[in-house]
Each structure stands twice: as C-alpha cells, then as structure tokens.
Design brief:
Immunoglobulin-like, five-stranded mixed beta sheet, five-stranded antiparallel beta sheet, 3 helices, 19 strands, disordered N terminus
C-alpha cells in the first residue's frame, strides 16, 4: 500500500472513531476481522476500548488483544507501531512514513513493540496478540501517543488501528503552539503557500479553529476559516493556505489566528508573489503569543515604561527643588550674617560717640 492510500485510509479510521472513542474499525459490517483490547487494571478510563495507561517510570508491561476472523480464509496481518502525527487537514493520523516533530521527547516506537512479526487469524477463528511496553526511566509530563497499525500481508486495502496512550501523571499540560515556518511548495500547475503550525506540548489539541487572512494595502484578498481540527501531541501541521496563482503578483500581509480551548495564537508575515507564481516570505511583521496575546504584552510594556518615566521625572524634580531650597537658605544666611556685622559696627560707633569727655582737658 502506498503512502497516499495509507494516509487516506488512516484518516477514515480516525473519522469513524471520533478520536480514540473506541476500537478503530475501517469499512462497513463486512470488515474481515475485528480486534478487542484486553483492558488492564492501570487503564485511565475503563470506558475506553483503546489502551490509555497510567504507568510508572521504567515499568514493563505486556498488553493483550483478541483478534477474530469473520471470513472463510486465513488472514495474515503485519503489526506496526506508529507515532501519532497531524495531517495538513487537521486530522490525527498514524502514518509510518512521517518524520516525528523534533519536539517529541519520547517516541512510542521506541517504547512499544509487537511480540510477533506477523499474526495469523484462522478462518472463522481467533488469535491472541501481545504487545510489550517498556516505559522511559524518568518521569515525563503529558502523554505519549501512538497506535498499533495492522495491515494485511497480501496487500488487501484495509487497515486497522488500535490507539495507545502512555502517561506517568494524569495532570493536564498547558497548551502552546508555534508558527515554525511559512514556505512555498512547488507543484506542477501552481505553487502553494503552506504554514507549519507546531504543537510543541505533549497533549492533544482538540476543537482547533484556524483563520487565515491575506491582505494588500489594507484590503482583504483571501480569507478562510476551518473548524473542528485536531493536533496530536508534539506534532506539526502543514496547513495549506492558498496558491500564488490566486493572489497575483505583488506584496501581501498574511495573518494567521489559531484558537483552541479559549487560548489564542496569532502570527503575521509578509509575503511576496512573483510573476512566475513563486511565493517568498519577505519579512516578519509580528510574532504571536498564546493566551495573554501580543496586544496585552505591548500594553503592559508601555505602562511599565510610563511608570518608570514618571518616577524618574519626579525624582529629578525633587532633587532640583532640594537644590533650589538649599541655594535660598544659603542666600538668606549670607544676608543675615551681613546684617549682623552691620549692627555690631553701628553699636561700636554709638558707644564711641557717647564716651564722656576727658576731665584732664
């Protein structure tokens, strides 16, 4: 099965499963086999039919599943452990050909493995399959997400995925998104503008809304909103915005706004479209922040600077007033000293005038 077919099949799996709401089954009631997880005691939520496990650091555990064949012929399945990733359409998928995000600290591929390289389910019978889990030595926050992908060895176009989530703590992790890149992807007919939006935290992002807007000279020339998107933990979404052919030659401003769970992230970039349809990111207009917002950050900075300016001005004024008061005191003191000397000289003259005449004359 090629990559495109597998990716499409996995997307259908996730659509039908409503994001880990149960065992993943593709197709209608005539799907050739079914899989049931034997839920262990350390399951976080017993109502889940996939593995959602709370484990200890360095813990080893064996997971068990029962596979049942609904056909008159043997079925041979090839198991593969795959990390959860995010498609460009905002769907959590399990594509073994995708490169994990560099923010992924622990890849489930290194922690979970199938005991057997292939599983044979006899006609109208069942088989038991085992997975081995070896947790990281140290504690970690959030979740490690992936899935067991079962594909038919004979090339039949059906795929089954069993979700696997591992954690050492049930505490919620705060969300954080980044705009990693904005670039052009060259195609045969036109060039496409793509934004790389990264979920850099070990948590799922649900009910994600992405709003993109392209403007030129304050006039909106392209606007689109997509809702109910999802992102896997520590994954990248290569979000398609538009093509250079749709915009025409010139300079534009691209605005991206992402909202999920009451948190908002906003970014703005300058883009330039050449006559040949080539799109270039020419400059960064502003960087976005989650939660508090760039506007609030700017307002806070301005208020802090204003407060510091007021304090500095008052300090200078107080020092000037003290200096002026000191000068006045010195002048008054000098005048007082001068008056006192004049009074003493006056008294001496009076005393000399009033001296009695000499009797010897």
């Amino acid at each position: 099965m090629n990559r495109k077919k597998l990716s499409g099949t996995l997307a259908l799996i996730l659509l039908l499963s409503s994001f880990f709401s149960g065992t993943f089954v593709v197709g209608a009631t005539d799907f050739p086999f079914s899989v049931n997880a034997v839920i262990p005691e350390n399951q976080v939520a017993e109502e889940h039919t996939f593995f959602n496990l709370l484990m200890e650091p360095n813990q080893y555990q064996v997971l068990q599943m029962t596979l049942r064949n609904h056909t008159m012929e043997d079925i041979v399945l090839l198991p593969n452990i795959v990390s959860a990733t995010t498609s460009g359409e905002g769907v959590v998928e399990y594509d073994p050909t995708k490169t994990p995000s560099p923010t992924l600290r622990h890849n489930i591929v290194d922690l979970v493995s199938a005991v057997d390289d292939e599983v044979v389910i006899p006609a109208l019978g069942y088989s038991v399959m085992f997975l081995e889990v070896q947790m990281p030595v140290e504690d970690f926050e959030g979740v490690i997400a992936g899935g067991l992908v079962l594909q038919a060895r004979d090339g039949e176009p059906y795929t089954f995925v069993m979700g696997i989530i591992l954690r050492t703590d049930i505490a919620e992790v705060s969300p954080e998104l980044e705009l990693t890149d904005v670039f052009m992807e060259a195609g045969e007919e036109y060039n496409t503008l793509i934004a790389t939006i990264s979920n850099i935290r070990p948590r799922f992002m649900n009910q994600v809304t992405v709003h993109t807007e392209i403007s030129r000279r304050n006039e909106i020339v392209h606007e689109e909103t997509r809702t109910e998107l999802q992102m896997a933990p520590n994954s990248r979404m290569y979000y398609t915005i538009t093509s250079g052919n749709e915009l025409g030659t010139g300079n534009y401003t691209l605005s991206i706004n992402v909202e999920s769970g009451g948190e908002v992230w906003s970014w703005t970039r300058g883009i330039s479209v050449g006559r040949d349809g080539i799109i270039e990111v020419t400059y960064d207009v502003s960087e976005g922040t989650g939660g508090i917002g760039v506007v609030i950050v700017i307002v806070i900075i301005v208020l802090v600077l204003l407060a510091l300016a007021i304090v500095a001005i008052r300090t200078v004024m107080i020092r000037q007033q003290k200096a002026e008061n000191k000068k006045v005191d010195e002048i008054l003191k000098s005048v007082a000293d001068t008056n006192e000397d004049d009074e003493i000289d006056g008294h001496d003259s009076i005393l000399r005038v009033q001296e009695p005449p000499n009797k010897n004359k």
